């Protein structure tokens, strides 16, 4: 068995040393980096060989990569690095790493061409000035071979361990048994579909109801498929914390914790949840866990692979025992885990860690997208941007004098946009070229300033800078899948505006990322209709779609459509009293715990207030705006097995999905809304665009996303095959056939 490793990955493992240092450096974008490499190559002689593929072996190691360029006439191998700002600010440990890469490539070249020696050059290209700074050394083939052998020897012990682990992992996967005595209803069909999908390298959309054990039902068959498909990683991607917990629990059931667990499981969390010293800057001068990070990393890494699952707490314990940063240790361990459990952002965002590593290392990965109905809106957020003129004015007040000129120019071009504005809200078909040029100039100036004054990256300036970078990045992608709109407000005599770049169809970004994986499984209780998700997520036309049989029966859930009440905004006041009476009557007939869902906090509070006034003896608890985790848990703690009362919540909010209240903890729900998005100019523009692109403006904008929220909320009532409950769907539109077609098949309307 051989172990393949990229030159960059090898050198990052063996040659990284010193501090973790994330002080601001105005790094080029990926596009700027590519352009910089092309510029350098274009300046070379006709015989210059760019992007030269090289490969070599050392024992069981196969080392390969692409050298930036080789000039046969001068016998010079170049390693090109792009940068912005002050060349002398490039840290010494970075140059050390760059030289290591150049020397490994140097030996691979000498071996390939039988060269006795070669000139190695580090070429640092400033993307602003387009000037090159060149460092050059001459190395004999013998010295380069010795260096190569040294790096490989350092890595080989780890590689041997990894190969042994891979063999053990695959052997365990082949013999892995389903952890329960039997499959639940629908669970076997789901598992078989997942296995076939993975085996065929396809994409599966699985609409699978709550209660069948979707997490185990998808993880188990994918683990079984790993050896045959030669998969390097499984990526379990989820929208919310409960999804990560379910995946970790499933992994523990499939592989009970032991000293030598054959499956390495890693949980990735957000930086702000993993940082030990949030008040400190991320560099060796400020944070003790960044000081000497790369010197202590090898021991921490070795200790970490002995633990599985590496959940947040376990990884923190390992990190602190070795005095390294938990967050950046988790990023390192993403390279060595078999199953990575993480938020959608880690694979689908602009700068997604897992996607970047998968591409750089040519990993064969399979994705599991949990609660996939959430991916549409989350992906839209990832690829959208906004900038507020009020924020700009606030930043300008405290900005350094060096930035005054570019800020004035940006504000001047911003004000010029208002001359074309015919109302408070307007959609524009094109982006404002002069304003974008001013924004680019502003970004460059802030970057240059922060390069000279790293401590200046704080407060409002930092926030505005990152927002500007995001806006600029999204602007480069602008096409009919985006809306560009301007919202104008009057502030005294001043007219101020907010500029928004709204992604409404993330398919061009999500589709290719899914396509790069060996197989994908998207699962949720609400993935209907199929075309909606196919269109918006860019799924392949041959994607398999299944609707898994529910383990529940119609007799478990009494579904009542209350069509005599309208919850439309114009009828809201008239609906308050009948809804209160409905809740009170049901509670009197069957006391217990209920959830009542409404379209807004205002609506919720009006009903809750009237209920408290009319029936003060009926216990109630109410969701409030911006509840933290402790407050959300306190809300859920009210639903006890012996308790009684009404919990009021907003549809589509924290309690509309992903919560589990089995048995007597929840015996019924009232859904007083279709969950339709607010009728406003933005949504109406989205409706128009959806109509133009897919011929289904209202359905794609309002109906499908709204009913998905309704079904998710209703799914809180019946969690096990022993549960009994009642569901009231309150609105006359719930009686329409078009709406009822989107209900789960097992529901029987009373």
Describe this structure in words.
The chain is α/β, with parallel strands linked by helices and about 750 residues long. The protein folds into 4 domains: about 5-155, Alpha-Beta Complex (Lambda Exonuclease, Chain A); about 185-270 and about 335-385 and about 505-550, Rossmann fold; about 385-500, Fumarase C, Chain B, domain 1 (Orthogonal Bundle), CATH 1.10.275; about 555-740, P-loop containing nucleotide triphosphate hydrolases (Rossmann fold), CATH 3.40.50. It has 26 helices and 23 strands. Strand 3 (about 60-70) and strand 4 form a beta hairpin. The mean pLDDT is about 95.
* Name of the CATH superfamily of the largest domain: P-loop containing nucleotide triphosphate hydrolases
> Strand count, sense and closure of the main sheet?
7 strands, parallel
Low-confidence stretches: none
- Approximate shape: globular
Question: What's the count of strands?
Answer: 23
CATH topology of the largest domain: Rossmann fold
- So, CATH architecture of the largest domain? 3-Layer(aba) Sandwich
* End-to-end separation: 63 Å
How many discrete structural domains? Answer: 4
Helices, by number, come to 26
The Cα radius of gyration reads 29 Å
Q: How much β-strand is present in the residues?
A: 15-25%
Quick recap:
This protein is α/β, with parallel strands linked by helices and 750 residues long. Helix content is 44%, strand content 19%.
